[in-house]
Design goal:
Blueprint lengths: L1 H35 L3 H9 L8 H4 L4 H6 L3 H14 L6 H6 L2 H7 L11 H6 L1 H27 L7 H10 L1 H14 L3 H20 L5 H29 L2 H21 L13 H16 L15 H15 L6 H5 L3
Helix pairs in contact: 1-10, 1-11, 1-13, 9-13, 9-14, 9-15, 11-13, 12-13, 12-15
Protein name: Organic cation transporter
Organism: Parnassius mnemosyne (clouded apollo)
GO molecular function, one term: transmembrane transporter activity
Amino acid sequence: MVLMIEIAGKNRILAGVLFAYAVYMGESTFACIAMFVPYWKDLIRIIYVPPIIFISYIFLLKESPRWQILNGWTEDAKSILLRISTVNNININKQKLANMNEEDLKKQFKIENYEHKESYRDVLKSKEILKRVLIGAFCRFTASFIYYGLMLNSVYLPGNKHTNFMLSTVMSFPGELISMYLMNRIGRKLPMMYGYFICGLLCVASAWIPEGYVWLKISLFLFGKLLVSVCFTGVVTYTMELFPTSIRGTLIGVCAVASRTGSILAPLTPILKTVSLILPSMFFGCFAIIAGALLTLMPETKDLPLMDTVEQIERSTKLRETRRRGINTTDEESNDLM
């Protein structure tokens, strides 16, 4: 059981990368189709038929066992855990799992008991949670806004628009591998901070490069796209680890809405070129630099257990501040966070 929990933690980033690769395959496929299907109505018909398959996900996808345990669905959680162990060839004591009650499972998953379900009111009372929500939402907005904005504006680069669009989609693939390596090796916070900062500088630089320096302009643009793809997956994983289990789904939903808002606004950025040719890239650069600066206020979450309640988040914040000031804490306070 402990082995399963450790594997789940280590594979969290890998799962995000695999999901992102599926998205990038779709983008690259779309770029290839667009080369041979120039009429936009035919193109729309082609790309909107496959989503019908998503209806089958209702029957294929299962709930998180941690969420089920937290909400009292003990038998369903045990069933999912058995299925996970079978599919992944993990040896566990099935008889021991079958005999576990709700309290045993909570202890195994290091889930604290709490008597009330936390709501928006609890979020609003916690300054730490509010800070995490606002910065997390802004970073996800920025990642989507820049990611899709660069992709759409790639057709305005010097050269063939189909080739440039294809290159902008391909640059996402190495970005994911870089994200997985750095976030497992260094941590979540620093790679994203520097990723946003450097992406912002590249966007600004590419805007001011004259059209005559074709390869330099395109190269800076594409490296910016690579770095924002690093941040895109990174910030999704990071926001999942920032929030407690009791309200994680709700707060991730808030961040997801911010992300979708960024992707909705991104197609409007080419209109800015009617005012100034450099305006879209300047917008991307400024937003990226602000996101990088805001991340300096956030905690590192690498190798830390997922928190279950707002109270745990508050205690962990106080403990971190105490350690920062060089004040010794008791073992009991430290164990409260595990």
